[in-house]
Design brief:
By secondary structure, this protein is an all-alpha fold. Among the domains are: about 35-70 and about 90-240, Serine Threonine Protein Phosphatase 5, Tetratricopeptide repeat (Alpha Horseshoe), CATH 1.25.40; about 415-520, Serine Threonine Protein Phosphatase 5, Tetratricopeptide repeat (Alpha Horseshoe); about 530-640, Alpha Horseshoe (Serine Threonine Protein Phosphatase 5, Tetratricopeptide repeat). Helices cover about 70% and strands about 0% of the residues. The protein has helices at about 5-10, 15-70, 95, 105, 110-125, 135-145, 150-165, 170-185, 185-205, 205-225, 230-240, 245-260, 265-275, 280-300, 300-315, 320-335, 340-350, 355-375, 375-385, 395-415, 425-445, 450-465, 470-480, 485-500, 505-515, 525-535, 540-555, 560-575, 580-590, 595-615, 620-625. Helix 12 (about 245-260) runs parallel beside helix 14 (about 280-300) and helix 23 (about 470-480) runs antiparallel to helix 24.
């Protein structure tokens, strides 16, 4: 320890002027330090203290709300269910929905959150020199995040990181920024920010932030379909998490992921690791239960039976006996128990624990095993039992149940004509049997039964008549199925679709598979329609009428058929002045193609014209359309103009998406007189 004299001896001797300058600098430093201390104290006691207190109260209210509504119940894990169902474009993954605070929960703390934002704005505006600006920015970002305002939360986090890159709160801000990006579905930015969060947390020694960032990376990998990519972040989270209870939960998530990936031996060891930490009761039960389930599926039946016996006899887990019974049922099935014993256990389980999600999952899993074995009848029975109540397997069970219902219906149709040749049946019944064979091919393709798919598609082709447009879809389905195994035959089948059925929607997809450009296939209906338009433009109305008539009569399924009818009516009305012929064509357009934009264009005019011609009171139609005339025009003095025989219509518009007609469309008679030629 240095004594006072020795300390004084170390001070160099200074002259008078130097001593004065040193004294001024020292006094200035002390003054500035005192000012900074004053600014910090004023900011802390006037604003930040209250902000921090209010945030603690908000989070305490959230914990109380969750605690009063929490129902601890074990999860239901099913192998091969690791990947989530496909999401809609605007739908959030399940793990992100947990960050959305429901309105009743938010309403309790709304005033406190507003107060935090007001105090934070006051601190930033009046006390920007204090050292609590970064703390205020983080609290404001958290407030915006709790309120579901992701963009303002993102902006506040970015301000904190730009103004205070070395702040001790940088890791917290990076994590909150990543969550804000993910909630806005900015997945790439979210993943990049999570990587930066991990770097910042490593530098600052924030193990809690590290564990949360790794968990989010794992959940994000699962949501994107990368199950293997989720294992490593979970292992990092388990190794880093300081809280023993959270470590047990992350270890359980890792083990559950291995179980759903069918890596049963690794899963059994991982479930055993959960018990080394300090798990909560439900986490402990899940670890023991699914360790037994993994042992059942990996061949350790004796050890699994002992574990299930312990779980069943323990009073700690008495409320979850139904889950144990579901695994016991799976154990008996794997051990080859008699049908009588299995039925006894099933009756006991269904009567005592009706609707238990674990039992429904056990029925679903056994139904899938029967499906793989080819026993579709029994599989349908067990999968149908899994759809009686909502459970984690309800959606998939319902999908397979509908698929097997289609299989059953198509099989019954085919069986009814088994002893008959296609030529012996009427065309309608023959088409129905062919449709059933095609449906069976589709069902077996969705079930993964490759040996049956080709057989039923070829049978459907034998039953379809050559000119039936539905034959095109069977050719397309078989051609696409043979794409990898027999490309030569696949190309031949797809070319048949292109050249024999060019007007069907299957032709466009076949051209895409073959790599054809649009110019490689001539659309006859389109060429005839364009030819008529060119002839009409130069005044050759007779030839134009002939070309459009060929489209209507020869290609009624083509999208150019309603265009041709519209053009014919327009030609007779606007160019030739034959209103009766124009009305006949327009009425045919409305009757045959009511959902096209061309029919909608003339629909009201046709109603008025037919009413005027047949002497029907126009007031009855005006009551159906209270707006007056189709164009809604008013006469002098606000009175409605009387409807003309035909409203003027514009030039034929380009092809547009179908527009639904009103449900009250009356059935218009097909025009009896044929259009007069010019």
């Amino acid at each position: 320890m240095v004594t006072a004299p020795a300390a004084r001896a170390r001070i160099p001797s200074l002259g008078g002027a130097a001593m004065g300058r040193w004294s001024i600098a020292l006094i200035g430093s002390l003054a500035l330090g005192g000012c900074q201390l004053w600014w910090n104290a004023e900011a802390y006691f006037n604003t930040y203290y209250n902000m921090h207190r209010l945030m603690k109260e908000v989070e305490s209210e959230f914990e109380y709300y969750d605690e009063t509504r929490r129902t601890e119940r074990p999860r239901v894990l099913v192998p091969d269910s690791v990947l989530p169902e496909p999401l809609e474009a605007t739908e959030l993954p399940t793990f992100l929905r947990a960050y959305i605070i429901e309105p009743p929960k938010l309403q309790v703390v709304q005033q406190r959150l507003d107060s935090i934002l007001r105090k934070g704005s006051k601190l930033l505006a009046l006390r920007a020199r204090s050292e609590l600006v970064d703390d205020a920015l983080l609290l404001m970002a958290q407030t915006f995040f709790y309120r579901g305002e992701w963009l303002p939360a993102q902006v506040k986090c970015q301000e904190l990181l730009q103004l205070f890159p070395n702040s001790p709160l940088a890791a917290d801000a990076q994590l909150l920024l990543a969550k804000s990006y993910l909630m806005q579905r900015k997945i790439a930015l979210g993943k990049r920010t999570l990587s930066r969060t991990i770097d910042a947390a490593w530098r600052q020694g924030r193990s809690d932030i590290l564990a949360e960032a790794y968990r989010l990376l794992a959940e994000l990998a699962l949501a994107q379909g990368d199950a293997e990519g989720a294992l490593r972040p979970y292992r990092h989270a388990v190794a880093i998490e300081p809280d023993a209870r959270l470590r047990a939960r992350w270890q359980l998530e890792l083990a559950a992921l291995l179980y759903r990936l069918r890596r049963y031996e690794e899963a059994a060891a991982a479930f055993q690791q959960v018990l080394r930490y300090s798990p909560e009761l439900v986490v402990e039960f899940e670890a023991r239960l699914y360790r037994a389930a993994a042992l059942i599926r990996s061949g350790g039946l004796a050890e699994a039976e002992a574990l299930l016996r312990q779980l069943k006899s323990s009073r700690r887990y008495a409320q979850w006996v139904g889950y144990v019974l579901a695994q016991e049922l799976t154990l008996r099935r794997r051990a080859g128990a008699s049908d009588e014993e299995l039925r006894r256990i099933e009756r006991q389980a269904d009567s005592a624990f009706s609707g238990n999600p674990a039992l429904l999952a056990a029925h679903y899993e056994y139904g899938l095993e029967l499906l793989q074995q080819g026993d579709l009848r029994r599989a349908q029975r067990y999968i149908a039992r899994a759809t009686v109540a909502r459970s984690p397997v309800f959606a998939r069970a319902q999908y397979y149940n509908r698929l097997l219902a289609r299989w059953e219906q198509a099989t019954a149709t085919v069986e009814s004509a088994r002893q008959r040749a296609p030529e012996e049946l009427p065309d309608t019944l023959r088409t129905r049997v062919a449709d059933a064979l095609y449906e069976l091919g589709r069902v077996y393709a969705q079930l993964g039964k490759a040996d049956s798919v080709e057989r039923f598609y070829r049978a459907a082709l034998r039953w379809y008549e050559e000119g039936n447009p539905r034959r095109a879809r069977a050719l397309l389905a078989l051609g696409e199925w043979l794409r990898s195994n027999n490309p030569a035959e696949s190309d031949s089948l797809l070319e048949q679709v292109v050249w024999r059925y060019p007007a069907t929607p299957y032709s466009a997809y076949a051209r895409q598979l073959l790599g054809y450009t649009e110019e490689a296939v001539v659309d006859t209906a389109a060429e005839l329609y364009r030819s008529g338009m060119l002839l009409q433009a130069i005044g050759e109305y007779a030839f134009a009428q002939r070309q459009w008539q060929r489209v209507v009569e020869g290609y009624p399924e083509s999208p150019y058929a309603p265009k041709a009818l519209y053009a014919l009516g327009w030609l007779y009305e606007r160019r030739l002045g034959h209103r009766d012929s124009a009305l006949a064509y327009y009425a045919e357009l409305v009757a045959r193609y009511p959902q096209t934009p061309y029919a909608r264009e003339v629909y009201t005019s046709v109603l008025y014209a037919l009413a005027h011609r047949e002497g029907v009171p126009v007031d009855s139609i005006r009551q159906r359309y209270p707006g007056g005339t189709p164009s809604g025009e008013k006469g002098r003095g606000g009175r409605e103009n009387p409807p003309p025989v035909l409203e003027p219509v514009p030039e034929p518009p380009p092809v547009q998406p179908d527009i639904p007609m009103p449900k009250t469309t009356p059935e218009l008679p097909r025009p009896v007189p044929s259009p007069r030629k010019p």
